Amino acid sequence: MSDPAVSIEGAGLGLRRALLSPLQEADLSELDFMEIAPENWIDVGGRLGRKLRYFTERFPFACHGLSLSLGAPEPLDENYLKRLRGFLDQHDISVFSEHLSYCSEHGHLYDLMPLPFLPETVDWVAGRIARVQELLGRQIAVENISYYAPAATEMSELEFINAVLDKADCLLLLDVNNVHVNSVNHRYDPQEFLMDIPAERVGYIHIAGHHHEAEDLIVDTHGAAVVEPVWQLLEAAYARFGPRATLLERDFQFPPVAELLEEIGRIRAIQARFETEAP
């Protein structure tokens, strides 16, 4: 696999089309990198393509996929993967991640479905991740998803994730918000979850907001500000793994850019503290 052309570090923001113009007009001196969903940008030209190039020429970027459906029973879309590699190379993007889930079954499901936590699922999805890495020429990261009803639990969520990381030799995109959401919905200790993740596998981190449906049910939405328990869990992640590159996700109900940049500033402040405290 090729060596990374551009790495990411510090605090980043997910670039959404609704943010293109507001971000062009904002002071982004505190922003270190950005992330996009490649499905929304491959083959996009004209005015929107120029706006994307405006940012990719100024910031390191990561790509976070939405549609590869790594755990699906149907074949990987290798034609899409070839187009994806061309897009990553075109914009000098070395960091690519996808969800450890599936989102298709003879058609797109428009949701991220949990995989059965079974040894045979580990073998299946790890083989597909290895093929993706081969076609992209990059080690990829897979994200721990939020889920609401497990498909099978012969293994725990954590055992399943760690087995996939090891067998596929890939990285983890650690979504701290998803750890918090799942810890409430499925009643486990999020701190213990973090402690049992191998540090060398953590590529970078996501943080986001969510919605409380009930006292014991949280829905992952990416449509609200980050809450204090998630900030606290981010600090625990830095204590365990060091201040890894961290991206703020916001997909709708966008506040003024200044509010998003305040959250970016808080990420940077926490990172700076852990950089200072690091041995």
Describe, in plain words, how this protein is organized in 3D:
- The protein is of the alpha/beta class.
- The protein has a single domain, classed as TIM Barrel (Alpha-Beta Barrel).
- It has helices at 20-24, 46-56, 78-90, 119-136, 157-168, 176-185, 190-195, 228-241, 257-277, and strands at residues 11-14, 33-36, 61-64, 95-99, 102-104, 108-113, 141-143, 171-175, 202-207, 210-214, 217-220, 246-248.
- An eight-stranded parallel barrel has the order 1-2-3-4-7-8-9-12.
List the helices and strands and how they pair.
Blueprint: E1 11-14, H1 20-24, E2 33-36, H2 46-56, E3 61-64, H3 78-90, E4 95-99, E5 102-104, E6 108-113, H4 119-136, E7 141-143, H5 157-168, E8 171-175, H6 176-185, H7 190-195, E9 202-207, E10 210-214, E11 217-220, H8 228-241, E12 246-248, H9 257-277
Parallel strand pairs: 1-2, 1-12, 2-3, 3-4, 4-7, 7-8, 8-9, 9-12
Antiparallel strand pairs: 5-6, 10-11
Give a short synopsis of this structure.
The chain has helices at 20-24, 46-56, 78-90, 119-136, 157-168, 176-185, 190-195, 228-241, 257-277, and strands at 11-14, 33-36, 61-64, 95-99, 102-104, 108-113, 141-143, 171-175, 202-207, 210-214, 217-220, 246-248. The chain is α/β, with parallel strands linked by helices and 279 residues long. It has an 8-stranded parallel barrel with strand order 1-2-3-4-7-8-9-12. The protein has a two-stranded antiparallel ribbon with strand order 5-6.
